[in-house]
Specification:
By secondary structure, the protein is mainly alpha-helical. The protein is built from eight helices and two strands, in the order H-H-H-E-E-H-H-H-H-H.
Length: 221
């Protein structure tokens, strides 16, 4: 992300985005289809943001009072912002797809991040998997009963899915609160940390790769 902000041209930031994508797919071994599926929602949001920057509103330019036109003078700045955002997006995806959250939380704990924030991260991360499993089981049960056979049934099944999730979230959060009180939980959430061999070697490799990325951003600037 620092290299993305150091780069001073859309070509440099786009090169950084391509490098991170290639490292994620070919270096980390993440399937290309999975990488694209994860990146697609944020990429669509990024495209919508870029289009909103390119189009400007002109009040009083026409008889109706409001008109839309393309801000051609802002095109270089918008291109730079869009490519920089894309580079930061690929960097975050590389981190999220290759590093377990438990390792990230362990690092943040060593950096003296407040325990309350780390506990919220842990609970939200766990809740996502619980909700994902509940959604999958509910959709499977509804599909077995032909709940998505027609458009009307699909809308009805979707409403049932949402209402069922609301009830499950409330019940699971209440059960978690009661379980924490039963254990007299007054401290932070602790879990076993992973132990990695040759960690110093990997840190040196990562630092060297980051330095090369910064050097590339400066050269292409």
């Amino acid at each position: 992300m620092i290299a993305a902000f150091v780069a001073g041209s859309p070509r440099a930031t786009l090169s950084i985005a391509l490098i991170f994508s290639a490292v994620s797919i070919f270096g980390a071994g993440i399937p290309a289809t999975r990488f694209i599926r994860v990146a697609a929602p944020t990429f669509l949001f990024l495209m919508a943001s870029i289009l909103s920057l390119l189009v400007t509103l002109d009040f009083g330019g026409t008889h109706s009072g409001v008109s839309l036109h393309l801000a051609e003078s802002e095109l270089p700045a918008v291109a730079q912002v869009g490519c920089r955002s894309l580079a930061c997006l690929t960097a975050l995806l590389f981190l999220a797809l290759t590093t377990p959250l438990s390792d990230i939380i362990s690092l943040l704990r060593r950096c003296r991040v407040p325990d309350t924030l780390l506990d919220l991260m842990t609970l939200c991360y766990r809740t996502l998997f619980v909700l994902s499993e509940a959604v999958h089981e509910t959709i499977t049960a509804q599909s077995a009963r032909l709940g998505y056979a027609t458009f009307t049934l699909s809308i009805r099944s979707l409403g049932g899915l949402v209402s069922n999730l609301i009830v499950q979230v409330w019940q699971r959060s209440l059960a978690l609160h009661i379980a924490a009180q039963a254990r007299n939980n007054s401290g932070t959430l602790r879990f076993l940390e992973n132990s990695y061999s040759n960690s110093q070697r990997y840190i040196m490799i990562s630092a060297s790769a980051g330095g090369l990325m910064l050097l590339l951003a400066i050269i292409l600037r």
